[in-house]
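As a warm-up, study this chain.
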Amino acid sequence: MKAIGFTKCHPADHPEALLDLDVPDPAAPDGHDLLVEVRAVSVNPVDTKRRRSEEPQGGPRILGFDAAGVVRAVGPACTLFAPGEEVFYAGVVTRTGSNAQLQLVDERIVGRKPRSLTFAEAASLPLTTITAWEGLFDRMGLQEGGGAGDALLVLGGAGGVGSMVTQLARQRTGLVVVATASRPETAAWCRDMGAHHVVDHHGDIAAQMKALGLKGARYVFSTNTTARNWGQLVEAVAPQGKIVLIESQAPIDARDLMRKSVSLHWELMFTRPMFGTPDMVEQHRLLDAVAELVDHGRIRHTMTRNLGPMTAARLREAHALVESGTMIGKVVLEAI
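Now compare it with the structure written out below.
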């Protein structure tokens, strides 16, 4: 089958950063695995970080996590899907990725593709949706309809995760959503996603929230630049609040939270499939729930760039866009 991978770490603009490959087809699915014909993928920061920093051992590495496609075969333990069904999912870092014509993926982390979306549109959603959902409802412990009157601060509101945090919070909680953005176009996107307010993370976040009549954020969801903005987050979070992080490019000092008795939570959407946790099927369930929200017009996809059929050159372009730090929403490519 055709695939795109890398054999050595290079910058995104290097001609060998990603290569067009011919590799053997995956084995027949076993256990809970589905064999999926990949119709579209999107690119996330995790793709670019691994391409830059993880030298492949023993052959080329195929990246790719977000995908939408069609089930072609199922393993003997599968009960959730049948051949011919359309699906979307985010894969796992410990297995071969979606930048290929075919992929094996455990059905317990796969959802039904929203019927109202194209494959390309659907591929923009899984990783960021799972991250947002787990951060809000599993890590922060929010309940549907809960949080009325409390503020949620979303650092990096125009990115893929921030876009989904805002949408899910608006649709499933009573929180006042305050997103951060620093450019007119990103601020406009945050408002389109449903943010009640937008503040500039290059300014004094706590002061801007106070000017809005908000005494502090009971909940903080930091999607990027956590270390750079750590002091701002500590100042903006309300006493006895909760902070969820999905990254930190440099160390932070959790002792800064002691004075306010604030709890700190990490969210990594790969944890359930990497460790085969007993509740791994929750990712299937939440993706199905999101598909329903999409099909009922309550949540929208976040694809803003479609680069067309996937080639190594176009995938390198997509990686460069993600690495630029200026992407709004998600960049998507269609089947090889």
